[in-house]
Amino acid sequence: MKNFSIEIKDYAIAISSSLFLFILPFTHTVAIRLSFLLITFLLVLKYYKFNSLYKLPYKKSFLLWLALPFMLLPFAIDLGYSFHEIKVEILYSLIAFSLFFSLAYQHKFFLKMALIAMIVSLLLVSVWGLFNSYFNQGIWDEAARHNGSASYISYSLILIPLLGLATVLFQRYKILMIALLTVFILTSFLSGQRIFIIALLAELLIFAIWAKRYFSISYKKIMVLTVVFVAVASLLAAASLYHRFNGSLDHIIDYQQHDPRFELLEIPVTMIKQQPWIGYGFGRDTMLHVLGGEIELNKILADYPAGYQYGHTHNLFLNYALEVGLVGLFIFLLLMTQLIRYYYRYSKDSDLLVALAGVAGVAILLGFLVRNQTNDMFYRDLSLYFWSTQGLLLGFIASRKQSDNGHCISA
What we know:
Structural class: mainly alpha
């Protein structure tokens, strides 16, 4: 790591950036989170001037991802809405990404402070969510300030892979990290979100394959652990569903057979076929605007057995194709693929911290993509959280390799 002495300005930057990450999972905190983002931006601009961003990999892909929604704005079904969503979901996210890349590149102190903030925040949400939801109402309270279950598991799936890196950075607190991992996984199971099991399994398999190669762990141990996990996960998922539907097995079976997301799939697919290349304008709820708002949408859905409000496609890939066309979806998938390849390269590094950052990056990307096949949570606060963690990991890897080799592979 480069020579770096922590000064008062660094504590100020660490506090403002950590508070930004801490507040993200809580609802109705937009003004607070943007205030901390602005404060951090001004401090980093003043003292570090973002002079490490030239080491960022895949700059052209990031610029394409940013530019295309702006280029397609004239064709948007609701120009004002799409412009607002580009600003909130892409511009602010890239600002956060650049901030945390620059900070993690400066020193691991900033990475450690960010991890502490994210861990404490999600722990508070976990305890609050369990107490408020299960000990008061019996199910997860979707309207509470601790956020809904779909958001909770999304935060959890981003943070869980980072706990491996945190375990090494905070070596004296390994038992605490294991306890936190247990809390986050159990809370996610109890939230009732079925996709969590598949996404978590994908993340754990990534770590298992990495551990097999990095530490020469036998496949037999990995298989035993996988079987145990699947068995426990299945029991917890069954218990959660049983509780969610008040012990009615018939209700559970009926819901699985008539999941409204599958019944209404033809709506976004038809729209994409009608306008495949330029889409209808950026924004998760663009489909709602295309269909003429909630009143018209409810009329359409009246003919469907599912009959519930369907403002977006509940699938990240379908939403991207609907918003910015197949070209936009291709650019997004290209960026994700490039990042996975970059992290995979460093997951084999001889530096354990770099390797853990690499495998965590692969696991987060894969887990988040799997999670968003049944919903689109790549949205506003979660977009900020996702890209902030990507900035942290990429900046940390670049910093470690810079100090080791005097240069960093920029891909």
